[in-house]
Amino acid sequence: MPESFEELLGRAKGVLDGNWLGRYTKPSPHLYPHQWNWDSGFIAIGYSHYDQARAQQELSSLFAAQWRNGMVPQIVFNPDALGGYFPEPDFWQGERSSHHPANALTSGITMPPVHAMAALKIVRKAQDRNSARDWLEDLYPRLLKSQEFFYRDRDPNREGLAYIRHPWESGVDNAPTWDPPLAAMIIDKRSLPPYQRQDLKKGIPSSQRPSDDDYDRYVFLVDLFRKLNYDEAAIYEECPFVIQDPLLNSVLCKANEDLMELGQILGRDTGQLREWYDQTARSLRDKLWHAEHGAFDVYDLRAGEPIGTLTAAGFMPLLCGAPTSEQARIIYEFLESKAFCSMDDERCYSIPNYNLEGEYFDTTNYWRGPVWVNTNWLLLQGLRRYGFHEKADSVARDIIRLVKRCGFYEYFDPYTGKCYGTHNFSWTAALLIDVILQETGSGS
Ligand code: 9WN
Predict the structure, then answer these.
(1) Residue 245 among the catalytic residues
(2) pTM
(3) Average model confidence (pLDDT) for the chain?
C-alpha cells in the first residue's frame, strides 16, 4: 500500500477516535455534538474495515432510540452535551408522542435508512462471526421495523414511495429542490415559537449555511409536528411539505435488497422485502423518471407535480438498480456533461451536489453546489452496479484528492477544491477509509 494511503488512513481513524463518545460517534467536535441517523450508518461502514465491535455498537446505539412505530430518529441527543445545538429535546418535545422511547432524547423526524447497507458490510467483513450473528439477530427486526414504518406511515397511496415531511429528513437540507415547496408555505413570523440558531455561532459564515427564511420554515414544521403530537396520519393531513424524494427512496429500495441478504443469513422469509423492493424500484422508474430532464425528479404530493431541480439526488436510483438500461445511459451522459463535471474536465471535482450551470448554484453554500463525500459514495456504488467503472474510479479519486488537499471537512468547492463547513467531520473520514480500502484495491 502506498505510504500516503497509510498515512491518510491513520489520520481518518484519528478523526473517528476524536469523535467517538464511548457508544457512538458524533459527526463533528463542535457543530454536531449528538448522534445523527445517517451519519452513524456511514461511520459504521468506515469502522467495519478495522473495528467490528465499534461498528456494531454504533448502529446498536442508534436503534436503541428507535421509536415504537419503527421510526429511527434523525438525532439521538447526548444528555451531557445539551445547549450547543438547535433544535434540542426541549424544542422537539418528542415525549408528546406515545411512540417516543422512554429512555432516550430524540428529534421527531427521520432520515434516509442507510443502516441495512452498513449492517451488511459489517456482517460480510466480520472477523468474529459469532458476535456478528448475535448482533444481527438483535438488529435485523429493528431494521425491518424501520422499513415497515416507511411503507405503513409514509406511503399513503401505497405506491412504494415514502415521503419526507421536513427538509432535514432528506439529509440535503437546503438543496435548491426544496425552494419551491418552502416558498409556497405561507408563514406568519409573529406566530412562530421563539428560537435561536446555534449553527451560526460556530465560526461558519452564514453564507455557507441555510438562510434565516429556511430556518423559519424548518421551525414552523417542527412546531406543527409537536402540536399534532407526532401523529403521522394527522401530520399527513396538515403538513404543507410532503415530498417523494429519489434519494431517500433509492436508499429505502436498496435497504430491502440488503435486508433480503441479511434475512437469508438468518434463515428468515424475505417475501415482503422482495415485494417492497419491486414496488419501489418500479415507482422510481415509472413515476419519478423525468424523460425531458434526463434524470429522476422529486414529486411534490401537495402541489401534485414533480419539482424539476437537478441535483445529484436525480441520479441516486442507480444505487438500487431501479433505472432501465436506457435510463442509466441517459443519466450517465448527464453525469458526464459540464453540468456535473465530466471526467476530462480539469476545472472541477466531481460530483457537485447541484447542477454547476443551475440558476442557484453556489460554490460554498452547503447543499447548493459543493461536493459532499456521502452522496458521492452512494453514487459511486450505483455507478459500479451499472458497470460505469471509469466514472466510479474518477469519483473515488476525487474523494481522495479533495481530502488529501485540505482535510476531513464537511463539503468542498467543486471548482477550487477548497474545504468548508465543520472540520474533523466523521463521515468524510469513515467513507474515505472505505474508498481507500475498497475502491483502490489497497485493502482486503
Ligand atoms: C440537520 C450531521 C447532519 C447531516 C445532514 C447535514 C447536517 C443538520 C444541520 O448535519 O444537517 O440534520 O444542523 O444542519 O445536512 O445531512 O446528517 O452531520
Answers:
(1) no
(2) 0.98
(3) 97
